[in-house]
Amino acid sequence: MLFSLLLVAAGASASSSFDTLVTFGDSYTDNGRLGYYINNGGKAPPPGQLQTESTTTASGGLNWAQYAARAVNASLVDYAVSGATCSNKLVSRYFAAIKAPFPSVLDDEIPSFEADVNFKSVFPKPRTADGTVYALWIGTNDLGYGGFLSDSQAPGTTISDYVECVWAVLDAIYKNGGRRFVLLNTAPLELAPLYAPAAANGGGGTLDSQFWANKTAYNVTEYAFKIKEYTTSVNKIFAYGVPFQVVIKSRWPGAMVDVFDVHSLIMDIVASPKTYLDAPYNVTGYWHHCLATNSSVCVDQTALGPRSGFLWYDELHPSDKTDSVIASNFVDVVAGKSKYGTRYTSSGWDSLGA
Ligand SMILES: *[C@@H]1O[C@H](CO)[C@@H](O)[C@H](O)[C@H]1NC(C)=O
Ligand SMILES: *[C@@H]1O[C@H](CO)[C@@H](O)[C@H](O)[C@H]1NC(C)=O
Ligand SMILES: *[C@@H]1O[C@H](CO)[C@@H](O)[C@H](O)[C@H]1NC(C)=O
Ligand SMILES: *[C@@H]1O[C@H](CO)[C@@H](O)[C@H](O)[C@H]1NC(C)=O
Ligand SMILES: *[C@@H]1O[C@H](CO)[C@@H](O)[C@H](O)[C@H]1NC(C)=O
Questions:
Q1: 232 CA from centroid of ligand 2 (Å)
Q2: Is the model's pLDDT at 242 over the cut of 60?
Q3: Which amino acid residue places its CA nearest to atom 14 of ligand 5?
Q4: Contact present, 103 and 48 (Cβ < 8 Å)
Q5: How far does the signal peptide extend, from start to end residue (predicted)?
Q6: Which one has a higher pLDDT value, 89 or 11?
């Protein structure tokens, strides 16, 4: 009896490892893709070709997806583009360097993925249901300055539309054979130096910034409250919405979705820096300071200890140290053994031989 129960449990779970990691998102995940667009007249890499991987990402070094893939020796297939939102039909931000809006997940990253699925040059290992994990981390630009925070969304569109866009991304991956998803929830952006009030108002935040040129023209205390409202609401919608879509609606039969509560993980780093970062620990400031008026004039905070002591690399991006922490927890989430992961499986998952 006990034996057969164990068998059922084993059948319903996934193997703890994966050999291919496919990522969608923004600068938190981009490993060089926006750079390709910039250097190639605003065009995506042609079908069958990935961008050259950069080891200096927006984290200052490797990003979480690179650490995670390296940790398990998986192929990393990254479609994330810095500056991306879920869809340019909701939030579209013009990017002068490509004379177009930043490429978005649904409108650019997904079509690029669809064009690549049959190329061995991109997917050297077969895309099996169990061994290929698709991760989506999107929302920082959608919800932030230039998006919902500054009321810059397309007229009449809402945060619910953004959530529907997230489901639509999973629909598209599912249609192309994806069965194993990880949805990373949104970070506590009100704590990012970009959105935190400045020291004068009791925070560790910036004044005007390369990413928000006239921040000081705003009541940032209110804007920090707003972005906290947006990110936490989105995370609550994900927490309730994923089981609803997976289990109640059976939207993706035979699929497994892990919600990775990266928000709580970052809060835990803030609460207990010495567990995660190197001394002397800095969870309010950031390492890489650039001029608000010229993002190529920058000074690193070498006098304040090593970069690996900082939660934030710059005013918006987690450091590579933080990303290495996110990566090891991501691997545990996929293995089904992380307190930051909540797993939902749709009927039919176990019949895939997973
Ligand atoms: C990592 O994966 C590659 C390609 O699949 C393989 O050739 C190599 O032996 C693997 N390395 C380890 C340490 O497992
Ligand atoms: C900040 O700058 C943006 C872009 O130039 C402008 O649209 C907005 O009105 C400015 N905000 C304030 C409060 O001055
Ligand atoms: C900024 O907003 C906070 C929160 O609403 C409020 O307490 C404060 O008085 C405002 N500051 C200014 C200068 O209006
Ligand atoms: C954290 O870093 C900021 C620089 O961004 C610095 O101003 C602040 O003093 C540092 N905090 C600590 C506790 O060292
Ligand atoms: C920004 O700084 C770089 C490096 O000093 C300089 O080459 C460039 O002209 C500056 N850009 C602007 C817009 O001032």
A1: 26
A2: yes
A3: 294
A4: no
A5: 1-17
A6: 89
Q: Mean pLDDT throughout 219-224?
A: 95
187 within 8 A of 231, measured Cβ to Cβ:
yes
**Phi, psi at residue 205, to the nearest 5°?**
-80, 170
Asked if 47 and 113 count as a contact pair (C-beta separation under 8 A), the reply is no
Give the closest residue (by CA) to ligand 3 atom 10.
219
Cβ(346)–Cβ(250) below 8 Å: yes
What is the distance in A from the centroid of ligand 2 to the CA of 214?
6
Kindly report, residue by residue over 93-133, the tens digit of the pLDDT. Answer: 999 999 999 999 999 999 999 999 999 999 999 999 999 99
How far, in Å, is the centroid of ligand 1 from the Cα of 339?
A: 29
Atom 6 of ligand 2, residue of closest alpha carbon: 214
Whole-number pLDDT of residue 56: 98
